[in-house]
Amino acid sequence: MITEVKQYGATFKLDFSLVYWNSRLEHEHIRLVSQFQPGEAICDMFAGIGPFAIPAAQKGCFVFANDLNPHSIHYLKVNAKINKVEDNMIAYNMDAREFMRHLMTVSKSELDTDTQLTDILVAKTNEIPVVKGPSEDVTEPLETGTTYKEGLHYSATTAHTAAKRRPRFSREDKKANDDFTNGSSQRDGNFKKRIRGYKFPLPRISEHFDHVIMNLPAAALQFLDVFKGLLQRRYWKGSLPLLHCYFFLRSNETAESILQEVEATLQSKIPDPVFHRVRDVAPNKAMFRLSFRLPVESLVEEEKVKDGKPSESNL
Ligand SMILES: C[S@@+](CC[C@H](N)C(=O)[O-])C[C@H]1O[C@@H](n2cnc3c(N)ncnc32)[C@H](O)[C@@H]1O
């Protein structure tokens, strides 16, 4: 059933039977976005149809929004258009771990020569790791076993700077992204020929982003391992990103036990963690957000990174 809902001035079109939507998260969506500043670069690993991503883009942030469910990405793009924020957002249809690794894939020669233009590189893989297990807050991907949609590789100007400049991608740029992410013509040879060698200024996301949103409460904590050794010390500029990780707290768990789990995953102390109770979902279960800055120990030395992934010895 296709319907339209409004949240704090943004309009969202969606099909309830195909995508995740929970109007009880409205306050949390706006509460988190209120912490973002115009010009900041945001990575939304589990973006759904965009209830964080679209208000953030409306605020003047540049958003890299990802979801494994192709229907979510379809409506995310529809909603970006309805709310006129297409120029501030790029949509990806990948597993969240792959998405983060993909964003960090640095073309060293481009960075070393400090070029302002870059080729679009095509990321391909044949398997979709699927988050399994029942949860009232998880929309299971509908098309399991298909191939990833191809994504884009960004490595020209920083997302931070680019967002401040409010880049206006040309219609052709946007068409390239649309073709990549909507899956319609990406396998088409003419299309590949058309975009190969195509150049335009893009955010250098591998050098800096400000916030990461992880709203998959049933499993987001398990995705934190992707940040161990993800960012390269040599290329990273400015402060480390703030991670906003949602989770369910059960009666046999405490904030301390969750923090211990996070610290064990990242193998370092988390300074100044902030816990926020989002809502109660059952008598013995509440949804929380843990916000914290990625610890400096998670940075990796350049030579230990191969193809955007940390080597075994660095983990
Ligand atoms: C709880 S919903 C959150 C959606 C939106 N951010 C919100 O606040 O309403 C979680 C989303 O994660 C997506 N998802 C599930 N597993 C995923 C994975 N492995 N990688 C990326 N997205 C995934 C689902 O399709 C769903 O849209």
Describe the structure.
By secondary structure, the chain is of the alpha/beta class. 25% of the residues lie in helices and 20% in strands. The chain has helices spanning 26-33, 53-58, 70-82, 96-103, 108-113, 159-164, 171-182, 189-195, 255-266, and strands at 2-7, 10-15, 41-44, 62-66, 89-92, 118-119, 199-200, 211-214, 242-250, 274-282, 285-293, 305-306, 309-310. A seven-stranded mixed beta sheet has the order 5-4-3-8-9-11-10, with helices on both faces. A two-stranded antiparallel ribbon has the order 1-2. It has a two-stranded antiparallel sheet with strand order 6-7. S-adenosylmethionine binds at residues 20, 22, 25, 46-48, 51-52, 66-69, 72, 95-96, 131, 137-139, 141, 215-216.
Notable characteristics:
Rossmann fold; 9 helices; alpha/beta; two-stranded antiparallel ribbon; 315 residues; binds S-adenosylmethionine
The CATH superfamily name is Vaccinia Virus protein VP39
Give the class-level CATH name: Alpha Beta
H/E element sequence: EEHEHEHEHHEHHHEEEHEEEE
Which structural class do you get from the secondary structure elements? Answer: alpha/beta
Order of strands, widest sheet: 5-4-3-8-9-11-10
How many strands, what sense, and barrel or not for the largest sheet?
7 strands, mixed
Q: What is the terminal separation in angstroms?
A: 45 Å
In this entry the ligands are:
S-adenosylmethionine
Approximately what portion of the residues adopt beta-strand conformation? 15-25%
- What's the β-strand tally? 13
Give the count of structural domains.
1
From the 3D coordinates, which CATH architecture would you assign? 3-Layer(aba) Sandwich
> What's the CATH topology name?
Rossmann fold
Number of helices: 9
Approximate helicity band: 10-25%
What's the gyration radius in Å?
Answer: 19 Å
Q: What's the pLDDT, averaged over the residues? A: 75
Contiguous uncertain segments of 5+ residues: 113-174, 179-201
| Shape label | globular
